[in-house]
Amino acid sequence: MAGTDHGQDSGWDGPTPAFILVRPQMGENIGAAARAMLNFGCDRMRLVAPRDGWPNSAAVATASGAARVLDHVQVSDTVEEATGDLNYVFATTARDRDLTKPVMTPERAMQHARELTAAGQKVGIMFGPERAGLENSDIVRANALVSVPVNPAFASLNLAQCVLLTAYEWRRSGDDTAPEVMEMAKTRFAEAIELQKLLEGLEARLDAVGFFFPEHKRDSMVENLRNMVSRMNLTEADVRTLHGVFRALAEKRKGFK
Amino acid sequence: MAGTDHGQDSGWDGPTPAFILVRPQMGENIGAAARAMLNFGCDRMRLVAPRDGWPNSAAVATASGAARVLDHVQVSDTVEEATGDLNYVFATTARDRDLTKPVMTPERAMQHARELTAAGQKVGIMFGPERAGLENSDIVRANALVSVPVNPAFASLNLAQCVLLTAYEWRRSGDDTAPEVMEMAKTRFAEAIELQKLLEGLEARLDAVGFFFPEHKRDSMVENLRNMVSRMNLTEADVRTLHGVFRALAEKRKGFK
């Protein structure tokens, strides 16, 4: 995790998801998001490449009583870094995306987050920059999408409002007494960094055999693979198996050279 | 209804509740409330004694695309006037009140509002002024209270946020049609026979490179692969991609024989 000099919380002790603001622009919105989170007991914020750097005095001024959320913020340069230790990542999106990925309401998503968290998984929720929203290259790293069912004729939720509704649903999801015990409760699910390494390894092997052809389709082919793998909810054991499968298929080839 | 010279909607044609802002102070907050409402299809706003009079240019500027909510606002001098034609009135409140009155979550309140509206009743929701909130003399006019379950250690919802959560719950309460998981609507998921063929193809390729070693572990290794693949919830497109990946990794090898 980059920016470890900003007083981040290195561990993951509590049961709340990480709210990951990706390339946020205005410090005021970061502060307002911190307040929105804390209203519903969420205090784990991560920032990816905040436009105006970090720390940000406008964020602190706006956060006011929620400054302790900012005190423990984790700052990264990339989404890859910010999600590396997470087992399950949601991406909030306003528009329909032409991606094969489950789309959930905030309610369903936070119920699922609650189940995953109860099973020991680390969950994060990504929020895109003001106006533009998340890019497809961010979204393909997510396990599922979250879409707020806004009025199609007037959809103007700002960043802090989207954070507010998500945190509210997180809180609501915990109103039930007993959390559902998930199947596979003892399984360790892969962290995003492990998926990333799996993909990089596969990509290199596929490059070596000229899989990405024609060249101008390379990016979309890689994105497609990334999208598929991030949706599979792989366990750590799955990742090891797939490393083995790819290696076996590819490296024997070398043996025959 | 007072203030009928401000272009109000005199009738009650639609199915949405009235959002009644009582003694709001900042025009910006009125505009932000209008936006929050319209995000979830609510467009009936009433104002009681807005501090800076009406119309309010700051409200209009902030409302922006939601200006039509303000165009039809009804302005009154008192809560009594503003609620006179309503059958059922909710009062939003942050603090516990020492009043014998049902207290509902926003979810339950808006479900109830939906039921009442469906039965032809006219429903309103009162929101107090910034900071101070509603006075007891306002609240005693309400049929029920609505309280957002905020973090007791940090409760800082502003007016527009409270309006947002209420409008969101109103929208959710009518959301019978939309499934909670919009499970990749146009996607065709793979059939078992397709997974079976994928596995058989992979197994043959892995056999060819001596992956299943030692022999006595062969069955459990195959079972492990099958278990993994069946858990991935692959789409038909994923299956084709994986066929391509396995072929690329393995067949180039043959080319080098």
From TrEMBL, chains A, B:
What are this entry's molecular-function GO terms?
A: RNA binding; tRNA (cytidine(32)-2'-O)-methyltransferase activity; tRNA (cytidine(32)/uridine(32)-2'-O)-methyltransferase activity
Whether S-adenosyl-L-methionine counts among this entry's keywords is yes
TM region(s), chain numbering:
none
Q: Which EC class is this protein assigned?
A: transferase
* Location relative to the cell: Cytoplasm
Pfam annotation, one family: SpoU_methylase
Biological process (GO) annotations held by this record are: tRNA nucleoside ribose methylation
The alphabetized UniProt keywords are: Cytoplasm, Methyltransferase, S-adenosyl-L-methionine, Transferase, tRNA processing
The protein's job, in short, is: Catalyzes the formation of 2'O-methylated cytidine (Cm32) or 2'O-methylated uridine (Um32) at position 32 in tRNA.
- What is the name attached to this protein's record? tRNA (cytidine/uridine-2'-O-)-methyltransferase TrmJ
Organism in which the protein naturally occurs = Oceanomicrobium pacificus
**What is the gene name?**
trmJ
